[in-house]
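In keeping with the milestone schedule agreed at the kick-off meeting, the structural modelling team has produced records for the first pair of proteins. Each record is given below as a sequence line and a structure-token line. The laboratory manager (R.T.) confirmed that both were archived under the project's standard naming scheme.
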Amino acid sequence: MDYAILIKEWDSDSFHRRVLDLEAKGYAPRSGSYRITPEMDPESGEIVHLYSIEMDIVETDNTAA
């Protein structure tokens, strides 16, 4: 079973906090999935960036207690 999570954040600090939290819980970034996408705020015309990455759960053989 695939346990992938897609993280999308407008704020880079929030994005990196979420990635580090998931890594501590046993997730690893999916190769080639990191993206920074520029978007324009339609109200202000300001360019903002959407940070995204896919994270997969890392299966270990030591799951038995």
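The second protein of the pair:
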Amino acid sequence: MTFTFEWAITICVGIFLIGSAISLKTNFRIPTMLTVAILFLAGFWTIFPQDLIEISGLKTVYNICFLVVLIHVGAMFEWKNLKKDWRIAIVVITAIIAITVLVSTIGGVIFGKEIVISSIPPLTGGGIAGIIMMDAANAKGYTQAALLAMMIMTLQMFIGFTLSGIVLRKEAAVRLASGLLNADTDEKDSDIVTKKTRLIDRIPDKYKDTTFHFFACCLLGATAYFLGNYTGSVTGGIVNRSILAIIFGILANAIGIIEKNPLEKSGSYPFLMLGLNIGIMDNLKSVTPGMVLETLIPFIGVFVISSIGIWFLCPLIGKKLNFTPAFSRAIGLNCFLGYPFNHQITVESINAVTEDPQERKLLEKDLLPPMVLSGVISVSVVSVLVAGVFVGLL
């Protein structure tokens, strides 16, 4: 069979459809992305060409539109609530400290120094931290440690999907039962009195069509990309394009340059999220059965240790910050997720507890921003700092 563009995109979208159907059938207890990841991994090990996602064009969608979607995500944040978000950072840092301490001590005794040092940074956020440790381990000749860093970076989503789904469903149900609708109605009544005319309100509605909203996100995303080249090099990758895109989205909505949920108004959001979720699966093509077998025991070991630390320590800190145990764990588990996976699992968990569109919208407003912010803090900021420290210890 020749994998033309037509067949490649059909297969990729079909896999996502299967994952979505299984998720619906199980009332979202089996996350869509868990099934999608398993099917892509099995496909790459058998009949799929290594460039299947590139042939489908969805990898290009991912590369082009990642920052555009992050602008949209930033616009979802409530400016008046951002002052409370330092609590999110505290719980994320607690999760990272738990991972670092427990894996260093328990894991060090079981698996050895090189394995532990190489695994901790990707465990705290994957992404750039994983690449840093993989390159450092290879340079030192620690092949298995480098392999483990790569495995954690590419496969940690399997653990993240499963555990996050459990706690997010519980948290969504609790918030729904706590009078979320009444609280939101009171807030809307207050907003009516204090609402001010914003810059975007001065533009006649007839000009604010789908193209207008999409262009606004593209312009801000392009600006974040351009400035990110400078800030990333100056800060060692800490203030990168992703962080700038989130910040631009927050500020643009706060000062009234763009609407909330601009990509939904443009009609492009579902397709872009599909492209992001499938495009990132391209990372799985580098994982082979031999790699899994070689690193399986330390891979399982460090994740069990890390998960136990997050599960028990994050609620202790979260309680002091008026967070429920489930929400505290969900925040900490972003170390294993990052964006867009944390977005997808949050939406599915909300869908599992209610079929009412208004309730789903309110729960998304309540849960999506802190989940996304947790991923940004762990993946884009703190894990990079941890990697910088641990490279010197390898």
